[in-house]
Amino acid sequence: MVFILVLLGWLFSLTLHEYAHARVAYAGGDYGVKEKGYLSFNPIRYMDPMMSVLIPLVIMLLGGIALPGGLVYVRHDLLRSPAWSAAVSLAGPAANALCAVACAAPFALGFAPESAMGASAGWVALGYLAYLQVMAVVLNLLPIPSFDGFGVIEPFLPLEARRALFPLRRYGFVAVLLLILFVQPVGDAIFGLVRNVTLGLGVPLDFVRQGQAALRSFGR
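and the corresponding structure tokens:
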């Protein structure tokens, strides 16, 4: 049950993330996102079966890493200014941040159990979803090509720098994943930051541990 609830919650947040990109792009001047169907809250519009569902799900089961999976094609050349282009990139992580706060709010306000011991699947899933949303924010804001964080600063870089970095888009995603999984200091830094922020939002970490255990046991 925890697995199903986490999967549904993650699907909702993924859709909200991509919808936020599209909504800001439309406001900024790329009206083509409406014609492509991105302004509907339909997850199928944003999904590729392999990159959006299968690979992120397998990695989440194996390592508890919340990878971005959807995709909105935005015509940045149609946007009114570099600031609008940066805002489009920032909109997705902002949506994840809102989801993290929403998931953590019952814990911070004292409505949720204080411990995962004996807690229902719904509370465990909600606590773990808060953790996944925080991780999505942290990863998406990395200033590395192919991540939203790079999209925030890219419009303000010199044209020569943007051209030089463009080929790295195809490698950034994989490079970060490999660093997290196989370079311990990098993984420890990322996971440590995510745990500290999650705890700071009021979610006890035993909910995160129990959520991770539930997903990994499902994947075995």
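(Above: one complete record from the training split.) The two ends are 15 Å apart (CA to CA).
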